[in-house]
Amino acid sequence: MAKERSEDEQIETGEQAAEVETPDAEEQHAAEEALAEELAADRDADKEAALEEEIASLHQQLAEHKDMVLRAQAEVQNARRRAQQDVEKAHKFGVEKLIKELLPVVDNLERALSTIDSSDEAQKAVIEGIELTQKSFIDTLVKAGVEVVDPAGEPFDPELHQAMTQVPNGDVEPNTVLDVFQKGYRLNGRLVRPAMVVVSKAP
């Protein structure tokens, strides 16, 4: 009987010990679950931070690519504009060399008219023929965009005129073109040949 009682006491003591240990196990289990949740939250936070960093990097790359595209488009537009300007210049000034070579012909026609005696009846037909030829020549040049620079009586312009000499003259303002040795010409606004002139100066 004593032995059975002793065994019963041990069983009761074990149950009591188990009952005593149960709250600790629950607390440990709860702590483990809390730790697991905390670790999971940390992992989620790390993932979220990594995603945000990747998104920021992608935004930066997108901005850089947009900038590169805009720069490339600007370069293409500039190249197209330059090419268009070159084509326009070629259209406008492609005949400049030919015009320069034709100008002496106009000069010779003018010299021929200046050397013929206009009072001589026998020369009138020749004069009329040269004048018609000269007019036709000038009209053709004008159609090609050529403008005559004949500045007699105008103020001297160093961008359009070339002064051959200066003559004292009190009747006009200083730096006035008194005479034109040779007319100048412009092609579509660009000077092809300056006018050679005599300029006045104060007496």
Automatic annotation (TrEMBL):
Keywords recorded for this protein, A-Z: Chaperone, Coiled coil, Cytoplasm, Stress response
KW Chaperone (keyword) present: yes
Chain positions covered by the region annotation Disordered: 1-30
Domain of life: Bacteria
Stretches of the chain forming a coiled coil according to its record: 48-89
InterPro entries linked to this entry: GrpE, GrpE_CC, GrpE_head
Chief site of localization: cytoplasm
Compartment annotation: Cytoplasm
Family to which this protein belongs: Belongs to the GrpE family.
Subunit architecture: Homodimer.
HAMAP family: GrpE (MF_01151)
Function text: Participates actively in the response to hyperosmotic and heat shock by preventing the aggregation of stress-denatured proteins, in association with DnaK and GrpE. It is the nucleotide exchange factor for DnaK and may function as a thermosensor. Unfolded proteins bind initially to DnaJ; upon interaction with the DnaJ-bound protein, DnaK hydrolyzes its bound ATP, resulting in the formation of a stable complex. GrpE releases ADP from DnaK; ATP binding to DnaK triggers the release of the substrate protein, thus completing the reaction cycle.
Protein name, UniProt field: Protein GrpE
Organism: Microbulbifer salipaludis
Protein encoded by which gene: grpE
